[in-house]
Automatic annotation (TrEMBL):
It comes from the Bacteria. It holds the Pfam family Fe-S_biosyn. One of its GO terms (biological process) is iron-sulfur cluster assembly. This is Iron-sulfur cluster assembly accessory protein. GO terms for molecular function: 2 iron, 2 sulfur cluster binding; protein-macromolecule adaptor activity. InterPro entries: ATAP, ATAP_core_dom, FeS_cluster_insertion_CS, HesB-like_dom_sf, IscA_plant_cyanobact. Residues 2-104 form the Core domain. Signal peptide: none annotated. NCBIfam families: iron-sulfur cluster assembly accessory protein (TIGR00049).
Length: 108
């Protein structure tokens, strides 16, 4: 299961409205090969649910995760920071054995 923090929820709603997207647009969270540590996070808005997607709703935000990515993302919290140490979405992934300095790639 993937969850969102309260701050991430508010930022998702803000970005969805800014982009002029309807409320039925979900957040698609995925994993792709690449990055400094071998795997990279992928985050985007998506209105199309695939038959193999795992769908969860947290704090009113619908989250789509493909079956393969779910293996790497189970238990992950999506957070958002706009502090001095970095701005943007952050993944708090208990499955990651190591992450790179930018926080966008990881290894298991």
């Amino acid at each position: 299961m993937v969850t969102v923090s309260e701050i991430a929820k508010n930022k998702i709603i803000e970005l969805r409205q800014k982009d002029g997207l309807a409320e039925d647009y979900a957040i698609r969270v995925g994993v792709q090969g690449g990055g400094c540590s071998g795997l990279m996070y992928d985050l985007q808005f998506d209105a199309t649910q695939q038959p193999t997607d795992h769908v969860v709703e947290d704090k009113g935000i619908r989250i789509l995760v493909d079956r393969k990515s779910l293996l790497y993302l189970a238990g992950t919290e999506l957070d958002f920071s706009d502090g001095l140490n970095g701005k943007g979405f952050q993944f708090r992934n208990p499955n990651a054995s190591r992450t790179c300095g930018c926080g966008e790639s990881f290894a298991v």
